[in-house]
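Please produce the structure of this protein holding NDP.
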Amino acid sequence: MADFLDLTGHVSVVTGGNNGIGLGMARGLAQAGADVAIWGRNTERNEAAKAELEGLGAGTITAHTCDVSQPQQVTDSMAATLAAHGKLDSLIANAGIGGRKGPFHELTLDDFHWVAAVNVDGVVLSFQAAIKQFLEQGNGGSLVAVSSLAGIEGAAGNIHYGATKGAVLAMMRGLASEYGRHGIRTNAILPGWIATDMTEAAQGNDVFTEKVIKRAPIRRWGTPEDFAAAAVYLVGPGAAYTNGQQFVIDGGYSIY
Ligand code: NDP
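Below is the modeled complex.
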């Protein structure tokens, strides 16, 4: 394996790593030899993902029950991750939820706070915990935020969700600037329409699916596997000079 693809000895946290896009990225990291700590709320799903990842590479895999919107749970999960792995090299803040859909003028502040608690607070808390550890270790680190095309395009009918994803992009750029001098790189991945549990209802809508496939030149929904190599690249040594960037992975959906 080329050195820039080899993550042997690299310790990475993937929040929401037990399902969907996060699991796709965790699979890539495990296959590249990394030690992976997955954080998610559903302990059963965490354990199933852990067992699967253990079969993919030689690295150590751990799973931690964590709601990333809860400060104490993030603190505890970081402590447990460090106790198990001894250090931290990267954190991918992928955990996220879709917002309540409906006309913007009918959505409530509670609707906004509900989606922001995970999609914004969760990223803030996870990144803060990682940065503290990176600074203590003193040899840099890599942060990756999973935003969304909705963070640039907005999301009609799901405005609150788009707003949280836009906030993550601003945070990513600010962090890239604030912590770059410490060797801490921050980048974002922006998925287009990806077939996961989150988009189950949309996948079941034939008219919508036809629209997605017609607009995306690759002519299919994305899959979690489409994110594996991006995760390996962004956390690894090959991306040593990549900082403050957003990577859209959408089959070309957004080029029009
Ligand atoms: P899934 O619903 O398949 O997975 C979401 C993951 O996040 C699960 O592992 C879930 O685990 C975890 N999660 C949710 N809430 C929390 C929480 N409070 N604390 C910890 N973990 C949590 O969704 P996707 O894989 O599709 O989404 C992953 C990311 O990609 C999200 O940030 C989403 O916004 C983004 N995205 C997805 C797109 C798509 O088309 N699918 C498009 C653009 C962006 P558990 O329930 O066990 O906590």
